[in-house]
């Protein structure tokens, strides 16, 4: 219960302690007794419990009740203390009263003594509570008075000033101590003193007020003798049984200024107690919240704060640190109509003195700002989505949806410029437009003044927003319109953003700002979409460049791409001709041919814009060549863009209006020039390849002719010489004839290898799966391997020309046998992407391994030097690689890689 009285009972007799506690709680149900057997325990209870009265026995073993009283007074000087003792003597009573007990009762008598004790407890506690409240009131008065900016005085019935706050110095020029004890008339001009004294005497005698105490205006007397215009409000109170008056005095000029600030300011000024109770509210409270100040005074301010925001508000005001500046917090406040409105409060701890706490809070309505922040946050989301649109229709639809969501403008629409530039056609319309307009609104160029179309075109041409709050009374239209509020915002060169509503004065400054921001992002999105579309179409057009078969065809297609895709009208391509000494025209658009005079060649010394761009390798842009000394300055040509095509030439682009080309045009023209340069490079490579192919074909023809000569004209005489040598050997035995026979054999081997070299260079075109192990065995039987040993470890199927593969393997086996000796072991094994042929012979000097595949290289007198060259040639024809390394046994090892396997 709220007026519960907690009591501590200390008595060493347990039975008497229990009986006393029981009777006290039964006599007065407000009393709640906590017991202790000795003073030490009682002190522990006092340190842990909220006790408002102590009842103590006198005679106790450790210390008597008076010593206990001394210890209690050290801790709680004002705590009521009743000595309840069985020892009743005047000496004890006198000592107890001297020691400062609140009351003294004897335990003798019947049960009525408990009723008497309970009554004394209640009286003592309530008296102490009243004293504490009075002290608190006085302290609060002093705290408020000392912190007030107005002068506050208290005066007794004799007209003597009993209290003056520090502010009296700013009003009257006196220090407070100089006024306390002095007559009030010191502050009243002499001519008014008699009148004042008579009025006071009349009130004290009759109680009748001759004036309104709440607002008295007069001139007071300053310390230096001049009169001060002040306003005064009186009050009367009783202190210690004595009537006194209190007056609040304010300098009139300050009063007017503060009243204007408090009562007419848009912000709400409030005073909150420590428990959040509203103690004062300025009149602006009603405008902001819908409540009059009297509706809220005494209520807890937190009860009106949105539940989700209360923690933030409490946290802010729980620990105010003025050093960090006045704290502020934003929160939702429940208004008189039940809705929530966003408020921002700035608080300061102004009333904390002697344990009395409170806050002065200034509050403003920030609902519009919060709504604006919410709108702008949503706007960021919508504009982010605009960045991902891929088509014009998608971007327009999204923009209309966004403006309807952000501004609630259902009559809005996006109107884009038609292809012929003669009308603004609807690309996207709000949901309400079909219901309000009989047909989709479109706006034709050249419409009569006063029409909706003329108003739209004026806004589009002027490139500025048109904002009309009440269209019907604006004088801008001669025809009817469903719209009253209207915002027209150009979308760059693309068209017009129409934001409208059937209600007048519908759009705020924030709405207009949203429409402008949204239209700006829509313009950027449409620019991007148009640029991406042009780039995509340009890429499609440039792909045809590389398929052109000649420089002239490439130039023609570059002009076509510039005119058809990039929509430039005056285009020419000039290419560098060394014989002509400059840039010669190769392709030109029809408009350029009609407009510009024929100029065959632009030379380095001719002052040509084309040559300057080509020579520097940098794009040149001119907003108006009529301000230059260019060749075409005397024609209708104005804007010029010249883009170099690498080392090949330049593309020249022009228009008849000045300042036409922007960064996008320059970027796209650069793409076209790069594609043209790539096409010219490809054409040059193709031309060089064709020339080389023709030369190779001529060389092959000569080689084939040589092979025929070798095959017929050398082999036949050689065979005759070999036959004659054999016949001579039958007739005579000469060592010279044997040497001639060996020479003939070597010449035959050389002829065979040369023929192989001549005919094995063509690429393999009829490869098929071949059993590598089978081919190795066949080659081993064909080659003269003498006493050599074969270790065939390769058995996979590979893709190869079988005949050429036999040629490669036979040469590698023959090479191993010839260089390894009669008892050499030849190993054919597998690699992850091929195979190898290795031996355990002498190997190849590491410094000579790179030369092993050169024609004519041999380490034996009987070798032709072409065997390994044929191996490399066969490998190249298959697209394989071959290299010579050392085998595991220290001999030679030839690795063939890049071989396709069918396993």
Which terms would index this structure?
903 residues; histidine kinase; five-stranded parallel β-sheet; 43% helix
Q: Give me the Rg, rounded.
A: 57 Å
Beta-strand residue fraction: 15-25%
Helix content: 40-55%
- Average pLDDT number: 82
Number of helices in the DSSP assignment:
25
Topology (elements, then pairings):
Layout: E1 5-10, H1 14-27, E2 31-36, H2 39-48, E3 53-56, H3 65-75, E4 81-85, H4 90-99, E5 103-106, H5 112-147, E6 151-156, E7 161-164, H6 168-172, H7 176-179, H8 190-206, E8 216-221, E9 227-239, E10 242-251, H9 252-264, E11 268-273, E12 278-281, H10 284-289, H11 293-296, H12 310-318, E13 328-334, E14 340-348, E15 358-365, H13 367-386, H14 392-407, E16 413-417, E17 423-429, H15 433-436, E18 443-444, H16 452-462, E19 466-468, E20 485-491, E21 495-501, H17 509-543, H18 551-565, E22 570-577, E23 582-588, H19 590-595, H20 609-616, E24 620-622, E25 639-645, E26 649-655, H21 663-731, H22 735-759, E27 768-771, H23 772-782, E28 789-792, E29 797-800, H24 802-820, E30 825-831, E31 834-839, H25 867-878, E32 881-886, E33 892-897
Parallel strand pairs: 1-2, 1-3, 3-4, 4-5, 28-30
Antiparallel strand pairs: 6-7, 6-10, 8-9, 9-10, 11-12, 11-15, 13-14, 14-15, 16-17, 16-21, 17-18, 19-20, 20-21, 22-23, 22-26, 24-25, 25-26, 27-29, 30-31, 31-33, 32-33
Helix pairs in contact: 1-5, 2-3, 13-14, 13-17, 14-17, 17-18, 17-21, 18-21, 21-22, 23-24, 24-25
Task: Please provide a brief summary of the model.
Helix content is 43%, strand content 22%. The chain has 903 residues and is α+β, with helices and mostly antiparallel strands. Helix 13 packs antiparallel against helix 14 (392-407).
